[in-house]
Amino acid sequence: MKSSQKATFEPISGRYAHLTLSGRPHRLYIEEAGSGIPLVCLHTAGADGRQFRHILNDATITRDYRVIVFDMPWHGKSLPPTGFETEEYQLTTASYTQMVLDVCDALELERPVVMGCSIGGRLVLNLAADHPERFRALIGLESAAHQQPWYDTEWLHRPDVHGGEVCAALVSGMMAPQSPAESRHETLWMYKCGGPGIFKGDLYFYRVDGDLREKIARIDTARCPLYMLTGEYDFSCTPEDTQRTAAQIKGADVTIMKELGHFPMSENPAQFRRYILPVLEKIKAAT
Amino acid sequence: MTAEANTDRVIGLFERLPALVEANADLVKRGRFLTTDFALVVGATPLLVRVEAGRVTSVARGPFLLRPWTFSITAAPETWLKLLKPVPDPGTHDLMALSKVGLARIEGNLQPFMANLQVIKDIVTAPRALM
Q: What ipTM does the predicted assembly reach?
């Protein structure tokens, strides 16, 4: 018997873009929704763009913003480049920065807003320091110039520990206990889906190559506004880490978010919305 | 509460682990590959927790004479009580958060610990149901 069920569709389009990143051809998966000010969202280490699905589906946001989310190469539905099988993946400050600039150029975005979380939150600080003229505003979620590591990343990629399980188990405690179970488990699922060694390779940027403490003093928020929002339950990038960073950046706008952790946009979308809508409103008003 | 009373309270909570874990079929299922002895150290008092195929089959109170365990997790009784709050406060809400700031020490052979990290975190925090 034929089902009478009719599918409903979200207002998101997903496409594969072909472009060159770090001198190599890539097939990059990009989702977008809405129109207006370009808002490019950067996912966390070891995860993918699905973290931003609630932003993409938020009509209040997409009314004024063209929300663009891409899976970094090696993540989600973006493939690794040809020849990856003999390489160890390692994200660096230079390659990550160039990737975001190249994606913005390839999509012909005019002074977009970039909102990045965790490694993405670190990256926006580098964009603020080196490329303020390219962006309308920058939003760092769980963002700091540096933070204290708390485990040996060797555990993330070895044959006697399941990579997906350990990555998820490590980050599970970085979410707020008040976040809905459904959203917490969805967030962890993305960590369980990551390719072998990819979380570890992303953390090379976070832990080794991307210490921006010497650089942030040059950030000029008059040239590009900087918003920093950190969840109170984030023990990896703590509120103190964000506040210490912001203390060195004149004009940085800091918010500590209640009942949220390291993955605000995916662990508790409704709670995050209360914090991010006023920021997006301010950016729109200044445009 | 005195430190001694806190220690007794935490030990009392951990001594109920066999029934708490048994009552959680999902946790037992997820832990089915874990068989190990590990120590939960409350202040200076070790508790030897035996796990067999995901079930906590015994919790023995030390001190012990040359008894081995695979790994140990040590924290002050007050710290354990903070972790075990039904809705813990930021910073004391996760075992790794405690470890990061030195409020807990995780030592020994960490391969089984890391390979079963979520299960172990869930076993250790199972007494939240009693708080």
A: 0.97
